[in-house]
Structure formats: structure tokens, C-alpha cells
Amino acid sequence: MFSNASSFVEGVDIAFFIIIGISLVFLVGITAAMIYFVIKYNKKRHPKAEPTKDNFQLEIFWTVIPTLLVLGMFYYGWVGYRPMRIIPNNAIPIKVTAKMWSWSFEYENGKWDSLLIVPVNKPVKLELFSPDVLHSLYIPAFRIKEDVVPGIANVMWFKAQKEGTYNILCAEYCGQRHSYMLSKVKVLSQDDYEKWYNAKDTLAEKMMPGEIIMKKQACIACHSTDGSRLVGPSFKGLYGSKRIVLMNGEKKEIIADDEYIKNSILDPNSQVVDGFPQGIMTNYSGQISEDEIKQFIEYIKTLKDD
Ligand SMILES: [Cu+2]
User: Fold this and answer.
1) Residue ranges for the chain with pLDDT beneath 50
2) Residues 6 or more apart from 32 whose CB is under 8 A from it?
3) Ligand 1 center to residue 88 CA distance, Å?
4) pLDDT value of residue 118
5) What kind of architecture, by CATH, is found in domain 92-199?
6) How far is the CA of 196 from the centre of ligand 1 (A)?
């Protein structure tokens, strides 16, 4: 009956179906009773009202039964929920960064990816981190969801039980591109996982340090590198170009040089390019070092107009 994609599926689904089942019984029962009473106590058939008072048996009945039902719902909810809060000591720790509007996953050996890659049948602990606003990591197939709160070190864990690929969504409205804040969990066999984990990151080796920073910092959630328009201006052809920015409400022409790019990272809303939404970008001071900004600018220089 259950997909068993994670070890939580059964417990959560049982609680879900019990609550839905009880609700359905009440929906049908109450509706049927209403219709029955409307017919039976219709004025033509029953012209004189006869109020009922103090029915001790009935009062006991409607106190005890609902109490047992809600306690039952609580019990199954608790049984399904409790294991989610008990994290096994041997769980593989993965640091999750949720940022407007992308996910990144960092492993113990420094490896990182925009996909969550995990071995099958091994507990995995996700340490949730957000530098900007509230997000929520939601993996429907695993029946888990947890808020990612700036300033709070939330954790969640799971044990995937079936190889395959499952959706990750952000379940907390976090701004303009919230609905694009998607990723996937890839559940691999132990062997494939180890191969992936220990493999040299050939893709990262081919990238300039600045490009890796750009991906890690999720700049590409809002800025393209191919000239297409997203939430913010594209990086393509940016370096050295002239642009009109709004500074303190006034339009001003500037050249996109090192100083401008650095300022756009550390204090982005002091100079938003004319025609783009104001006040959307969070400032990255404290999240990116001076050296990283330099490497980033070196990379931006390579994105020339055709
Ligand atoms: Cu989000």
C-alpha cells in the first residue's frame, strides 16, 4: 500500500488515512443526520416543538467517543512524528543552504551540489541554513518538511529506502521566484554513492574559482550568464559596460567596474539598475570574502558580449 520511499512514509500515511477516514465518517454521518432530521421534524409532520433537556447518557456518549477519537488521532500522529525527531548518530551530515531561490548541498569532504545525492538505506542528516529569508525544505515522497530559518540551526533527517529521483520543493513563500526553488534528491546504491562521493569533481576543476563561487552563492537564481533577463540583470557583457542605476532615487550613469560589482554584492540596493525591481537582492556581506569577490569579478570579465 505504501511507497516506502523513506522510512517515514508508513507512519505518516497511517496517521493521514486515519484522520481522513474519521473525517469522512463524520462528514457523511452529520450530513445524513441533518437530512434525516429535516425530513422527520418537518413542520407539517411535527407541528409542535419538543425540546430535549438533560440527557445524561447522550452527554456521556458525545464526550467519551470524540475524546477517544482525538486521542487515537494524536497517538498515530505521535507515532508517525516521533522517529523524525530522533536522529541516528551515524547519520551522514549534509549542510543545506536555502537561498533566494535555490538549494545547495555541501558534504563533509567539501563536495557540493545543487542536487541532494544520498545512498540508499543510510540515515542522512540535513543541517538547514538560510542566509536570507524563511524557506522550507519539502520532500513529498519522503513525507518530510522542515522550515529553514535564518539564525536558527534546524535539522531534519531521513532514510531513503528506494533508489530513484524525487522532488525537492520550497514550501514557504520566499519571494518572486519561490515556485522555481526546486531541486531533486537522487538516491543511489551504496557503491554508486561512494563512487560519486570520492570522484574528483571534474566539472568543478574545469570551472574558474569565480564560477564556482557564483554557483555556490546561487547568484544564477536571479542573474543569467547568457544575456537572458531574469529577476536581475545578466552578467553577460556586464564588465566595463555603461549602465543607468538608481542611486538615492536619482538616475545616474556609471561604468560597471570592480568597485561597482563589489558594491553590488555588499550593498546591492544602493544602486539598482534602472528598470529592475528595487530592494529584492539581499546583501552578501559576511557571506563572501574579499578574495572571493576578486575571483568572482575575474570570472565576470570572461562573460563578454558576442
Ligand atoms: Cu524558498
Assistant:
1) none
2) none
3) 27
4) 96
5) Sandwich (2.60)
6) 27
Residue spans of the domains in the chain: they are: 9-85, 92-199, 204-302
Q: What is the pLDDT of residues 189-246, one digit of tens each?
A: 999 999 999 887 766 667 788 888 887 777 877 888 888 888 888 888 888 888 888 8
pTM over 0.85: no
Q: How far is residue 182's CA from residue 175's CA, in Å, rounded to a whole number? A: 14
Q: Is CATH 3.30.67 the classification given to domain 9-85? A: no
Distance from residue 273's CA to the centre of ligand 1 (Å): 24
**Angle subtended by helix axes 209-216 and 290-302, to nearest 10:** 110
Report pLDDT for 210. 85
Which residues line ion ligand 1, judged by CB < 5 Å? 135, 170, 174, 181
With a CB cutoff of 8 Å and minimum separation 6, the contacts of 1 are 13
Residue 194, pLDDT score: 92
Q: Which long-range contacts (CB under 8 A, 24 or more apart) does 244-250 make?
A: 244/273, 244/274, 245/271, 245/272, 245/273, 245/274, 246/271, 246/272, 246/273, 246/274, 246/278, 247/271
Structure confidence at residue 161 (pLDDT): 94
Question: What distances in angstroms separate CA 174 from CA 148, 180, 231, 286, one per listed residue?
Answer: 11, 11, 14, 21
- H helices present in 86-208, as ranges: 190-198, 202-206
Distance 64 CA to ligand 1 centre (A): 43
Beta strands in 171-287 (DSSP E): 182-188, 242-247, 250-255, 272-273
Which pLDDT score is estimated for 17? 94
Range 204-302 classified under CATH 1.10.760.10? yes
pLDDT of residue 1: 55
How many angstroms does the Cα of residue 8 sit away from the middle of ligand 1? Answer: 23
